[in-house]
Amino acid sequence: MVDQNCIFCRIIAGEIPAQTLYEDQLCIAFRDLHPQAPVHVLVIPRAHIESLNEAGQRDEPTLGHLLRVAARVAGEQGLEESGFRTVINTGAGVGQSVFHLHLHVLGGREFNWPPG
Question: Is the backbone of residue 40 left (phi > 0), alpha (psi -120 to 50) or beta?
Fold first, then answer.
């Protein structure tokens, strides 16, 4: 399913340019326009899934694939040794601003714990 009002669906469709780092039949990874770290990549499914709350059992292979792609992209960005953080925000109250499931890959600096 594609949502014509969704900025990520429009990036997938090629209507909005993005600095793409990886793509395959299930997902696309591109640099965040407003990076929160020296490396900040978004990994999104091609299928429009609003959030983790909307993901169903049929989406489980895609969800696992997103995590593997996140690790691959992090490695390609030189983050294997220093490490990286993956984040999925679910809901406006915790910072989800685009309601198309997306995984943030962040690295290149030190992070504090707990986040937020």
Answer: beta
Which of 83-111 are b and which e, b meaning 16 or more Cβ less than 10 Å from the residue's Cβ? ebbbebbbeeeeebeebbbbbbbbbeeee
State whether residue 115 is helix, strand or coil.
Answer: coil
Residue 112 tokens read as 């504090």
DSSP 92: G
pLDDT tens across 53-76, in order?
Answer: 999 999 999 999 999 999 999 999
- Give yes or no: 102 in active site: yes
Q: What domains can be seen in the chain, in order of their start residue?
A: 7-107 (3.30.428.10)
CA distance 108 to 44: 21
pLDDT at 18 over 70: yes
Q: Which of 34, 40, 48, 102 is catalytic?
A: 102
User: Under a CB-based contact definition with an 8 Å cutoff, are residues 43 and 103 in contact?
Assistant: yes
